[in-house]
Design a protein that fits this description.
about 625 residues; Sec63 N-terminal domain-like fold; alpha/beta; Rossmann fold; 7-stranded mixed sheet
Length: about 625
Amino acid sequence: MLYDRFQKEAIDYINQGHSVIVCAPTGSGKTAIAEYIINEAFKKNDYIIYTAPIKALSNQKFRDFKEQFGANIGILTGDVSINPQAQVLIMTTEILRNKILDEPMSLARYSWVIFDEIHYIDNEERGTVWEETLIFLPKHLKVLALSATIPNIQELSHWIESIHKKPMQIIVENHRPVPLKILFQCQDKIISSLNELNCTGFSQKRMILKPNRLDHLITNLRQNMNLPCIYFVFSRRRAEDLAFELYRFDFLNAREKSEIVNLYNELCLRLDLVNEVSARRLFYLIQKGIAYHHAGMLPGLKVVVEELFTSRLLKVIFTTETFALGINMPARAVIFDGLRKFSGRYVSVLKTRDFYQMAGRAGRRGMDKVGFVFCRINPRRISFEEIKKIIRGKAEPVKSQFNLSYATILNLYKRYKESLFNLYPLTLHHHQYPQYQQKRALKLISAKLNLLKNLAYIKNNNLTNKGNFAAALYGYELILTQLYEQGVLEDLDEFRLGQLAVAVVFEPRKNQRACALPKNSRFLQHICEETFLAVKKKEISFGILPFSKKPYFHLAAALQAWLSGTDFSKIKRFTDTDEGEIIRYFRMGLQILKEINSSPATSDSLKERIKKVINILNRDVVDAQRQLQMS
């Protein structure tokens, strides 16, 4: 294989036994470096860990690597455990972090860890996991870190070097193999420069705005042979609405139509989707070369859409931004529905780094000379200066989001006792932030430790029984452990155990209504609310923010129906949550149940009931392992 300059340089360092961090644009071929390490591992009988930030990406890598390298590939994600003794083991970063803290000796035979999308370390919700993983990573493991643009790559590399006391070689590639051409749709015109955009959309104060028509934009792409395209939109419902807005278009000739219909039917049969209403609804679009893809869909249906897209039979796909994260699915063109998005708390303009992560899907290496990026602009919703900053600005630096969970503190206390505070200077947070923020971070760790002692999770410098119980739970420790201490868990039947596990992970959308709760679950909701308020009161008194998450019972009726044997297609009437989200929360609930089951403090009788819940809950479309094996 002929390698590009940056790939060859990275491989030379790898051959010399160095850890390497590679920063290169989306679509430039970073994965080829990981594949080189994997090929060498098979030759030398080495063992490799490959981590990805999300389960969907882990699953895709498993499918890709299995096809590419054969049977000696495994995966561990919490949802799935396939061939866990394989030479190449794919896992989410959470699973690797837990292994490092709970069973470090299990990593003795591995020689490399590949961190895909390492810039995820500044993800607000889960970045801490990456930081903890890198801090406590066993010293014998070499690291290959892959990322799109990181302007502070030197800082990140120096931090990793400072922890592990060995050099981290930096490879930077700024050149894109397929250059991007950025255009705009404004006033329903196609505009090819920022200057022209300023004159067309922002020069007059009382301009009469013309709507940007989707059919005009798609017709332009079609006439200029700029299909297939990925259309990024920041709302699941809008992704579907826009897809059906194109229903009058037909992008396929007779041969392509026959091929895509046959492939769609074959995939739906293989993934047990033939009778799903959502699969039948999507079929109307598929046969015209159109699709949508978002987290609210059935996971199997998302896999079908991904397979169709890689077959090059889909010409327009409307999708949310997760489609840009590591999934190797380039197109000739990318369209942005807008350059602002709602992040869950507020609306903000896209970061430059996120824009180019998504835009980088435009341009297929070896097929296109240029990748086309179209931004749909409404001058009343975004300023020209904001657009200019996104397009021409410098990518934002990666920043630490460090915030130790209670479970991590308990696991570290078990090993380091009071000297766990000496670990803070190893963090990226300490490396990056000024002294007053360092003091604040240490104060928060101290407050959490004091609260754990106050609630008797730690006594006489050792973890108590409830401390050991909480140490197995990451993210929902206090609520579940306080219920455990009160004997609530021991009194719950299988239905209520399942409902509790899903309630602690469920996060309702803004203004989402809660469906009527089954009568025999109201007491559980009441005691959970009381326990949450007691925990919150404690956290307030110790000055701890953010608070532990409140349990929400929005899916209680749906889960009861599912545990009673109801078909998945019929449980939608019990909730207004999207079907893909229902499955996601059911799977997250399964993970909680597995963590409770793994705790040495859990009684045998509770373990028996948990096993029963897991067996009933983890079936059909909820069974991630079954789905992955079928795909």
